[in-house]
Structure formats: C-alpha cells, structure tokens
Amino acid sequence: ELPPSEFMQVADSTWLVLSVVSNGREPPGCQATGVTKIARSVIAPLAEHHVSVLMLSTYQTDFILVRERDLPVVIHTLAGEFDIYREEGGECVPVTCDDVSNGFLKPKPAASPTLHPVQSPQTRFCVLTVAPDTLPAIATMLIDVLFYSHSPPREADGSSQDLDSITFFSFSLIEGYISIVMDAETQKRFPSDLLLTSSTGELWRMVRIGGQPLGFDECGIVAQIAEPLAAADISAYYISTFNFDHALVPEEGIAEVIQLLQQRQESSR
C-alpha cells in the first residue's frame, strides 16, 4: 500500500518467516540464547545448502527469514531435525517433503562463503521490552529517537576502519510483543519504570558484519558468527538489516568473541 518513491528501495525477493519453537528436548543447563541456540540445527544446515537467510532476534524469541523460492530446499534440509508446520487461517498444518517435492532442486555445489570483516564499536547496548499498554507513554520519545535523533550515515570509504561508536536503534512489534535494542545512553532518555529487561539487566556489545552493504544473495553470513559462538556456548542476539548484519553478545564476553572471529578469519586464509 506504500506509494512508489525514489527514496524507498525494495529488495526483489519475497521472504517467509520461520519461527523455531523448542520442544523441550534440550539438555539441562543449556543457557545459550538467540542465534547461538539454533546455530547447529538450523543456521549451519541452511548455509551448507546455500540458502540465504535474514535473522531477527527479539526479546521474546528468534525468527529466520528465507526467500519464498528457497522454501522447498529449506523444508528438505530441516525436515529430518524438525516437525514443520505452516500457518493456514490461523491454524498450524503439518508440512512434509512430499508437499514441495515438485519444486525441490538439489542445490549446486558452491564456493566457500566469503568471511566478511567484523567491527566492534565501544557502544554498550540494552535489549528491552515494553508492555503494549504502556507504549503510548513513550510514543513521542520513540518517534524522536527513530526519526530525528540519528546522525548521517558514514561514508563507505571509512567503513573499513573500526568504529568508536555506532548509531543503532531497533524496534519490532510482532504479534503484540515489543522488542527494542538501544544504546545505554539512549535508554536514559526513557522512563526507567516502563522499560523491562532481563533480571540480570546485562549490557551487550555489538559485532557488525561487513565493511560494505551485504546484499541478499550471499549465504553463510549468519553462520560465520553463529557457528563459532555456538561452539563456545556464547549467547548472542542477531539482527539482519537491509545493509548490514549485527550480533549482540554479553559485554563481559566481547574480548573472547573478537578473538574467536579473528581466529576464524586467519584460518580461512
């Protein structure tokens, strides 16, 4: 319904959302959250089958977006590990490989995915939620932060350097649940009694993937971060955007994360 505009760029692909629901079979004491939790079971297999994904971690759960044309490959890839359902008229209907067998194409072998550079700004972030009925109380502040408080984007020629800070604010409203990621300084502008955090109230540091906009055709970008963190059992939230991918890790673990990713970069050379 949005009118065409020279200021709005739209990706060619139509995307579908995969929501991964735990079935309670995880081993006791498994504390990993976000992208780390589904790295081995979902993200790595899709990368191996050359499926490009967008990842969206929220305060409540995690979503993986896949291109609609890749759905047959996605189902064939994940059917051995998961019970797969599609939503029809509000009801969940089981999906089998036979349902999409006519459209399944065996993926062609591809070269190893490019390992993109990562940047880790000094900015500290908070992962928050807000009760929907209190949203009107912070609506004016949200509008100001979203549309009037950002700095101009940096020029591409300086993107290869590490950033001292980064302007990043994410707001999602999914099925009535609100999730917000903001830097610690911006959080101070909001009424503290309306923003809900985890019981630990931990702060997060960011790893931004890519020195230039990544596009949508490449696969393995999420896996580049997810697999090393999963192997080290480090929790991470992951947010794909139109231009770049961003992983949030607990502040106390940022040094270990940077070391892990640097080792992966060096081993691929």
TrEMBL record:
It is found in: Cytoplasm, Cytosol. Pfam families: ACT_7 (PF13840), CASTOR1_ACT-like (PF21389). Residues 11-78, 201-262 form the CASTOR ACT domain. The keyword Phosphoprotein applies. GO terms for cellular component: cytosol. Keywords: Cytoplasm, Phosphoprotein, Ubl conjugation. InterPro entries: ACT-like_dom_sf (IPR045865), CASTOR1_ACT-like (IPR049479), CASTOR_ACT_dom (IPR027795), CASTOR_fam (IPR026249), CASTOR_mTORC1 (IPR051719). GO terms for molecular function: arginine binding; identical protein binding. GO terms for biological process: negative regulation of TORC1 signaling. The keyword Amino-acid biosynthesis does not apply. It comes from the Eukaryota. Residues 116-199 form the Cytosolic arginine sensor for mTORC1 subunit 1/2 ACT-like domain. PANTHER family: CHROMOSOME 1, WHOLE GENOME SHOTGUN SEQUENCE, CYTOSOLIC ARGININE SENSOR FOR MTORC1 SUBUNIT 1. Functions as an intracellular arginine sensor within the amino acid-sensing branch of the TORC1 signaling pathway. As a homodimer or a heterodimer with CASTOR2, binds and inhibits the GATOR subcomplex GATOR2 and thereby mTORC1. Binding of arginine to CASTOR1 allosterically disrupts the interaction of CASTOR1-containing dimers with GATOR2 which can in turn activate mTORC1 and the TORC1 signaling pathway. Forms homodimers and heterodimers with CASTOR2. Interacts with the GATOR2 complex which is composed of MIOS, SEC13, SEH1L, WDR24 and WDR59; the interaction is negatively regulated by arginine. Interacts with TM4SF5; the interaction is positively regulated by leucine and is negatively regulated by arginine. Belongs to the GATS family. This is Cytosolic arginine sensor for mTORC1 subunit 1.
